[in-house]
């Protein structure tokens, strides 16, 4: 069992005493409790409620938290409208559910009965929870609910713990726990749950290969629907273009899914869709069902669509799709968070339907998704932090009457994750104000809230509709994404409505449940306005692709008030080569941050500050490359000219699962610039709340400390130290006269990099081959101060202008790769080209021009372009290297000592891009500015220090060579001590060269 800081495997003593008392009480009266007459509701009051209180849970919300944030949600004991009721207890951290406890009366055989196990597993699985608890107090069963449940499985499937009440204090069979009570306390008591025990369980107990979490599994389900619907519709109907087919398929999926979710939630008759699936004409019956729903819900999703209603669709396709949502259906839709549905749709929208020349349907990835390597949704903790740090800050201390005009927008809303979180946040804010002691009676009379139980209230449907229409706005260029956002918001609006009086559900001002979102959530290109003029103004295909959007006309009521109050979101990471020349020209004309190689997201910064009113704020999560990349120069300048509020850099942490994106959160306000902003460098994701984690890790960062070439977030102490170090000597590029060279990019290593056997054969065939074959190293071969070793790799170095006919053996050898070695034609944009990049070189030549190749044949300093720390060494054997290395010509041992010093490691940590796995990338563009103390060798003191450092570096090189050939452990240990001593002395001299005091040295070594 992996232990996590802050977690304990022992039960709290006070909790243990209370549970012992409950256990004794139950065992004394066990016979009466096991009678059929002893109901579940009684058990909850007598035993399970006190048990949970003993484990620290606030069942009655004595803390006075908002309804959305209360720790425990309890369900009614009776079935609701014929549905299987939800689990009896839902335990939460803030708004996030962490586990369910399902209660049964003691007469139920929990150990062997499959039905209760399936019920709790199904709910836990759908809610994407790690562990859930099933108990009648006599028996305690814990299930791993990450795995997909099946009605045919026994009660043992997925069960990871079981004990009876008289075994609670007996020895535990789970490794790492002394007693059963300790296991239950660790995973189901408030304190360890809040400390992350469920996250620890998931990390320690990986799913088996092939097992899918609910979002991955459900994604597979709706992707299968899309495939089958697209093929069936294309086969039975005639479509003019891809868009029409894509829209029809999406709308059918959205409608069916919405109605099926409403069945589980209680606002639709149970099994209504299943009954339709058994009809003689399924699609005709389904169309009638849609029309009825349109009258009931008043939603755009059910707007009359004569073309859609006239389609032909086989019974078998619909029947298979619908029945799969009932029979052995693993999804409890009333437990599926809308956020998970949004995450699924985010992935789903990464593909589109294309009609082939023969009129058949084919599903394929969108080009921008293929280029990006997939779709990556924003983690919920990031979404919630951005919402709380923008909306929460704006709303703080505001009176109700001043909030009515508040507007928030996501200009690239995707499937609606940020808008959902913003909506939920606002619902909580309104509920808290409506139910304040002085306001609750008035709110009840006005129908803004209704009473659920003593001390528990919920917003009425009318109130929730108002919050949505007053405050929530979104735009996306993808029509399908806009429709999904609307669907998600509809489902969020109807969430928990089965708890209200069913007869009152649709008693609203217009007698219908849902508002029309058309004015709030719109489709368009947030960055391109109606002033865009393409090649052909009347080319429908081009205009559809550009999808220009007029913000002020589309949201006139917002801009009459000066604009939006908050802009939030995760702008798209679309690479510039996908934009097209005309779009790039438009962006250049209209955006100060323009740079021809920039990703699309940088333009959203400038757009966001245009959209917000004076004093408004924006907050995005984006890739952090703009802080250091050349294409970010204009953006960095733009940000300094406006008010920076906060930057949170996640470095190389895997924030987006499965993607290497290096993200950061940035917040700005439309106001005059300030000299200081808040910053944080996050170095772990082991937290349950980003806000709490940051509360002790933020620091003030001075705008003046940010350099034009690249930004690195540092506090004043570190910034002052960096400035002191940079003030010493001269930049590295001046010290070495700009002589840093990159290793060789061959264009096809398979052809040009050979082994010893091939080398010897080519020379045997033709002696002249030896002129072109060079000893070869790659980045991983280079270690700090270590002598270089030939790994049996060689480079066929066919430089530009070479007469290949003088080397017949090498020509014959390379000809086997000729098709792959052919340069790509200039301007070629196809995807299937197997040759190399375009360039003015012959097929047999190295792709790089490498006009500095003679430098490889001299003594030089050499280092890898990716490393954990400075890894500089000498090359006296004249190796050639791949592009993963850099070389500095010359034999400067003084420079080598500085490059490998602790001061340089401090500069690495402070100024270089950090990559996944704590690696750094000391490319020339960064390294060239690092300061080198320049000694005056005519000065006696400087010359003595210089000579001493050179002598120590020579000793260090010798020690490393000895360590490489050490024959015994004793020698290895002795040499390690000598190496450490030598390093200390080198660092001491370098500290002196930079004039560092004891405190500054401690900071460098920290």
Automatic annotation (TrEMBL):
This protein is called: site-specific DNA-methyltransferase (adenine-specific)
- TaqI-like C-terminal specificity domain location: 774-932
Which EC number(s) are documented for this chain?
2.1.1.72
SUPFAM superfamilies of this UniProt entry? S-adenosyl-L-methionine-dependent methyltransferases
Catalysed conversion reaction: a 2'-deoxyadenosine in DNA + S-adenosyl-L-methionine = an N(6)-methyl-2'-deoxyadenosine in DNA + S-adenosyl-L-homocysteine + H(+)
Which InterPro entries does the protein's record reference? Answer: DNA_methylase_N6_adenine_CS, MethylTrfase_TaqI-like_dom, N4_N6_ade-DNA_methylase, SAM-dependent_MTases_sf, TaqI_C
Which EC class heads this enzyme's classification?
transferase
**Source taxonomy lineage?**
Bacteria, Pseudomonadati, Spirochaetota, Spirochaetia, Spirochaetales
**Type II methyltransferase M.TaqI-like domain segment(s):** 471-656
Q: Does the keyword Endoplasmic reticulum apply?
A: no
Alphabetical list of Gene3D superfamilies matching this protein: Vaccinia Virus protein VP39 (3.40.50.150)
Annotated keywords = DNA-binding, Methyltransferase, Restriction system, S-adenosyl-L-methionine, Transferase
């Amino acid at each position: 069992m992996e232990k996590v800081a802050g977690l304990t495997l022992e039960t709290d003593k006070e909790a243990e005493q209370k549970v012992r008392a409950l256990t004794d009480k139950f065992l004394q009266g066990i016979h009466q409790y096991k009678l059929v007459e002893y109901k579940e509701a009684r058990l909850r009051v007598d035993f399970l409620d006190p048990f949970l209180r003993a484990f620290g849970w606030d069942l009655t919300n004595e803390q006075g938290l908002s309804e959305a944030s209360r720790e425990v949600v309890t369900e009614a004991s009776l079935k609701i409208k014929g549905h299987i009721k939800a689990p009896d207890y839902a335990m939460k951290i803030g708004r996030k559910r962490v586990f369910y406890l399902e209660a049964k009366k003691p007469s139920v055989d929990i150990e062997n009965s499959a039905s209760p196990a399936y019920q709790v597993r199904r709910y836990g699985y759908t809610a994407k929870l790690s562990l859930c608890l099933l108990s009648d107090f006599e028996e305690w069963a814990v299930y791993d609910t990450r795995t997909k449940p099946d009605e045919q499985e026994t009660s043992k499937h997925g069960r990871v713990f079981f004990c009876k009440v008289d075994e609670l204090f007996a020895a535990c069979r789970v490794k790492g726990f002394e007693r059963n009570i300790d296991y239950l306390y660790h995973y189901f008591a408030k304190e360890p749950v809040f400390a992350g025990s469920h996250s620890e369980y998931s990390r320690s107990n990986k799913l088996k290969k092939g097992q899918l979490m609910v979002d991955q599994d459900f994604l597979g389900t709706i992707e299968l629907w899309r495939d089958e619907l697209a093929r069936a519709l294309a086969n039975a109907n005639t479509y003019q273009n891809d868009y029409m087919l894509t829209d029809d398929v999406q709308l059918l999926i959205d409608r069916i899914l919405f109605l099926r979710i409403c069945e589980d939630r209680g606002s639709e008759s149970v099994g209504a869709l299943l009954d339709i699936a058994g009809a003689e004409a399924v699609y005709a019956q389904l169309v009638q069902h849609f029309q009825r729903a349109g009258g009931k819900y008043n939603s755009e999703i059910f707007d009359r669509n004569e073309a859609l209603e006239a389609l032909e669709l086989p019974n078998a396709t619909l029947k298979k799709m619908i029945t799969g949502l009932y029979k052995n259906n693993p999804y409890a839709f009333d437990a599926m968070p809308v956020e998970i549905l949004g995450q699924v749709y985010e992935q789903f929208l990464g593909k589109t339907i294309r009609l082939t020349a023969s009129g058949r349907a084919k599903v394929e990835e969108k080009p921008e998704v293929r280029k990006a390597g997939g779709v990556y949704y924003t983690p919920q903790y990031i979404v919630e932090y951005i919402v709380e740090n923008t909306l929460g800050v704006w709303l703080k201390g505001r009176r109700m009457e001043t909030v009515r005009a508040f507007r928030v927008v996501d200009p690239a809303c995707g499937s609606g994750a940020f808008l959902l979180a913003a909506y939920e946040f606002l619902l909580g804010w309104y509920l808290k104000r409506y139910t304040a002691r002085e306001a609750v009676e008035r709110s009840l009379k006005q129908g803004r809230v209704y009473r659920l139980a003593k001390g528990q209230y919920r917003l009425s449907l009318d109130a929730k509709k108002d919050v949505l229409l007053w405050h929530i706005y979104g735009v996306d260029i993808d029509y399908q994404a806009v429709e999904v956002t609307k669907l998600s918001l509809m489902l969020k609006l109807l969430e928990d409505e089965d708890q209200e009086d069913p007869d009152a559900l649709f008693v609203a001002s217009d007698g219908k449940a849902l508002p029309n979102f058309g004015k709030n959530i719109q489709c368009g290109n947030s960055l391109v306005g109606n002033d865009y003029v393409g090649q052909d103004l009347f080319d429908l295909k081009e205009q559809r692709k550009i999808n220009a959007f007029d913000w002020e006309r589309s949201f006139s009521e917002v801009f009459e008030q000066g604009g939006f109050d908050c802009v939030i979101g995760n702008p798209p990471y679309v690479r510039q080569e996908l934009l097209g020349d005309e779009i790039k020209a438009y962006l250049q004309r209209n955006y100060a941050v323009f740079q021809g190689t920039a990703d699309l997201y940088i333009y959203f910064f400038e757009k966001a500050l245009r959209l917000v009113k004076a004093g408004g704020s924006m907050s995005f999560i984006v890739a952090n490359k703009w802080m250091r990349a050349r294409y970010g120069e204009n953006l960095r300048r733009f940000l300094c000219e406006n008010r920076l509020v906060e930057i949170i850099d996640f470095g190389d942490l895997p924030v987006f699962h499965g993607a290497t994106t290096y993200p950061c959160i940035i917040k700005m306000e439309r106001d005059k610039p300030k000299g200081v902003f808040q910053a944080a460098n996050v170095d772990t994701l082991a937290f349950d709340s980003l806000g709490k984690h940051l509360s002790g890790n933020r620091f003030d960062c001075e705008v003046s400390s940010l350099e034009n070439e690249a930004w690195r977030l540092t506090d004043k102490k570190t910034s002052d130290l960096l400035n002191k170090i940079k003030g010493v000597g001269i930049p590295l590029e001046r010290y070495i006269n700009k002589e840093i060279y990159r290793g060789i990019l061959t264009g096809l290593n398979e052809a040009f990099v050979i082994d010893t056997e091939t080398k010897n054969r080519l020379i045997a065939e033709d002696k002249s081959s030896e002129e072109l074959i060079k000893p070869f190293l790659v980045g991983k071969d280079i270690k700090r101060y270590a002598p270089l070793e030939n790994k049996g790799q060689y480079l066929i170095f066919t430089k530009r202008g070479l007469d290949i006919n003088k080397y017949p053996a090498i020509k014959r050898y390379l000809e086997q790769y000729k098709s792959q070695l052919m340069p790509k034609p200039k301007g070629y944009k196809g995807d299937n080209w197997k040759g190399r990049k375009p360039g003015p070189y012959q097929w047999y030549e190295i792709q790089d021009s490498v006009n500095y190749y003679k430098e490889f044949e001299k003594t030089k300093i050499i280092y890898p372009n990716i490393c954990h720390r400075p890894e500089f060494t000498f090359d006296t054997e004249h190796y050639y290297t791949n592009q993963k290395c850099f070389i500095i010509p010359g034999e400067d041992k003084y420079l080598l000592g500085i490059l490998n010093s602790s001061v340089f490691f401090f500069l690495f940590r402070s100024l270089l891009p950090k990559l996944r796995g704590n690696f750094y990338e000391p490319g020339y563009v960064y390294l060239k500015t690092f300061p080198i103390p320049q000694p005056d060798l005519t000065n006696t003191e400087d010359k003595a220090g210089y000579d001493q450092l050179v002598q120590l570096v020579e000793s260090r090189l010798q020690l490393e060579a000895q360590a490489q050939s050490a024959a015994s452990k004793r020698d290895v240990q002795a040499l390690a001590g000598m190496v450490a001593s030598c390093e200390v002395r080198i660092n001491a001299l370098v500290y002196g060269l930079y004039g560092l005091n004891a405190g500054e040295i401690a900071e460098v070594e920290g």
